[in-house]
Amino acid sequence: MTMAIQEYSKRLSAYCRLEIIEVKDEKVPEKLSDQQRLKAIEAEGKRIISFLKDDEILVTLEINGNQMNSLDFSEKIEAYTVQGKSQITFIIGGSLGLSSEIIRRSDWSLSFSKMTFPHQLFRVMLLEQIYRAFKIIRGETYHK
Description:
Elements: H1 2-12, H2 34-49, E1 57-66, H3 70-82, E2 88-92, H4 100-105, E3 108-110, H5 119-137
Parallel strand pairs: 1-2, 1-3
Helix pairs in contact: 1-5, 3-5
């Protein structure tokens, strides 16, 4: 996975400035109460928020987010850039989900699937779709 992440990061450098920030998962017992789960989600949310800026577009990746195809995804990214929104931040939720504060701040809730994926695999999938979006926006060919 790491090699794929490096490869797409390298490819994306021709189109954008990419920064990947990973916050640590909250340590929780295997069986946790609803209160422990909420506390862990909120703690992770505070760590994520510490990296956010007020003027960025915030995209949360959530199982219950909106699903779209690659063309629609590229059009959405292009629409933000046309509006002068040059910084788009994608947040992949932790294994327990996203805090209510992060969800409230989200400008766009996106879902790739109703399935759950490991973080490293999902990161590759997201980077590939961002790369594909830039290729579509620029009218460049990209093998399917």
